Amino acid sequence: MTEHDLATWRAFLRTHAQLMRRLETDLHSCHDLPLPWYDVLVQLAEAPERRLRMTELAGQVLLSRSGLTRLVDRLEQEGLVVRAACPGDARAIHAVLTDAGVDRLRQASPTHLRNVDQHFTSRLTPAELDQLRALMSKLEA
Predict the structure, then answer these.
(1) What is the pLDDT of residues 106-131, one digit of tens each?
(2) How far is CA 132 from CA 54, 75, 129, 136, in A?
(3) How many CB atoms sit inside 10 A of residue 42's CB?
(4) What is the full DSSP assignment across 52-91?
């Protein structure tokens, strides 16, 4: 690995960390909603019947199963998510978005989307966004 390679890697990590901090700060200060919570709510809102198996959800939000379990515990305490048995598989548990979770997501989404635009998409041309998406697709496992 060359110094150029490492410099590129470090730039990617720095940029990612800065973007996530900015998005987290505004969501938390405006809506008392941590970014990982927002991510879980979005994943469930986009899922059929607003539900996903806990194992599927863990993969989509890039958390370990134990990390997701703790996060869902907190979301459940807030009334934003409930756990439900999985029809047809007694061993599996679904996380299900509640109406309160939908409402919280609707309140927070304009802030999040405005910040994604302000700190990310508006800083790149449409062609650059296409190029970045293509590059990120190459890196996906």
Answers:
(1) 999 999 999 999 999 999 999 999 99
(2) 30, 33, 5, 6
(3) 17
(4) EEHHHHHHHTT--HHHHHHHHHHHHHTTSEEEEEETTEEE
Separation CA 119–CA 114 (nearest Å)? 9
Quick one: which H or E segment has residue 123? none
- Cβ–Cβ under 8 Å, residues 38 and 108: yes
Please write the tens of the pLDDT for every residue from 42-97: 999 999 999 999 989 988 887 777 888 999 999 999 999 999 998 878 788 999 99
The sign of the torsion formed by the CA atoms of 48, 51, 55, 60 equals positive
What is the full DSSP assignment across 8-44?
Answer: HHHHHHHHHHHHHHHHHHHHHHHHS--HHHHHHHHHH
CA distances from 127 to 21, 110, 131, 133 (A): 26, 25, 6, 10
The pTM is what? Answer: 0.89
Degrees, nearest 5: CA angle 58-112-123: 110
